[in-house]
Every structure is written in C-alpha cells, then in structure tokens.
Amino acid sequence: MDEIHFIRKAIELALQAEEEGNLPVGAVITLHGKLVAEGRSRIYDPKIDLTRHAEMEVLKTLPQEFWNSPEKLCLFTTLEPCLMCLGAILLSGVGRVVFGSVDSYGGAECVRPNLPQFFQERFDAIEWVGPILPKECDPLHQRLRLIEISKESDQDT
Questions:
Q1: Angle of helix 54-61 relative to helix 83-92, nearest 10 degrees?
Q2: In Å, what is the CA distance from 18 to each residue of 14, 15, 40, 58, 83?
Q3: Are 101 and 140 within 8 A, CB to CB?
Q4: Are 99 and 78 spatial neighbours (Cβ–Cβ below 8 Å)?
Q5: Is the pTM of this model over 0.90?
Q6: pLDDT tops 90 at residue 104
C-alpha cells in the first residue's frame, strides 16, 4: 500500500468525524504498510473533550503489541499536527509522520525552532512528509477553521 491510500483512509475518517459534528480531521497508523490503528476527531461529540484530536485518538487505539517498536510506525493525518498532538507524537517515538495539509495557524512546524533540546532531538529523529494531497486535505482544514471561528464567536455572545 502507498502513502496516498493511507492519506485517503484518513480523509474518510475526517469526513466521518465531520458528519458526527466534530472537526474534519482523521488519522491512521501503519506498520510495514499495513493499517494497525485509526482515529478521528471526537472533541465535540459525544461530549466536549478537547484532548480527542484525531492523532491522540489513533495513538490511544494502537494495540499494545505495536508499541514494542514505535520507530517503525507511520502516522498519517489529514492535517499537520498541533502542539498537543506533536508532544504526544514526540513522546511516543513514532518514526514517521505523513500529513495532508499544512496548518500554518498552529501546526508543528511553527514551534520547531523553539523546542527544548530533548524534544528537538525527538523531532529530528522523525521523518516528516507533507503536505501530500493538499487539494483534498486543504478544504478539510478550511472547514475546520470555519468551525473553530464559529465556536469562538458563539462563546463571545
């Protein structure tokens, strides 16, 4: 299986998350070209839990036996990971991250120059690939931003 196949699976999960009232972000983890875990944004439904980003969900659902060699795992996500997800990815030891859309608003790359040494070394040990399929993933990110802006304005009123 190739990268496009797995990013498209993450897109399917993102669309499912959006249908459920969540942010349109999906993620999968592979090992040796086989899907071993999947996750999607669940931060608004079934209840508000801001830690339930797609990347956090996929890391939580990864079966225990795959944690023996995390450097062999590849995480595919529709959106460049945010700071919270980046921290989890760095601590997990996942060896490769492939993302579909750049998140210039709050993605991992914007904090890279300011990481403490421990996290910088972990960041540098990961193979980062992306964006891939931006024509399909960028619209998901744009809708995500509109949802976030709408939620912020709802809180202000």
A1: 30
A2: 6, 5, 9, 16, 21
A3: yes
A4: yes
A5: yes
A6: no
User: Can you give the pLDDT at residue 8?
Assistant: 98
pLDDT digits (tens, 9 = 90+) for 36-82: 999 999 999 889 999 999 999 999 999 999 999 999 999 999 999 99
Return the closest-CA partner of residue 79 out of 20, 35, 24: 24
Dihedral (CA of 135, 132, 5, 57) sign: negative
Condensed to tens digits (0 to 9), the pLDDT of residues 115-134 reads 999 999 999 999 999 999 99
Q: Rounded to whole angstroms, what are the CA distances from 144 to 4, 56, 75, 86?
A: 21, 17, 20, 18
- Tell whether the torsion through CA atoms of 53, 56, 62 and 66 is positive or negative: positive
Identity of the residue numbered 51: T
**Which one from 3, 55, 57, 80 is the annotated catalytic residue?**
55
Antiparallel, parallel or unpaired: β 96-101 and 127-129: parallel
The yes-or-no answer on residue 55 being catalytic is yes
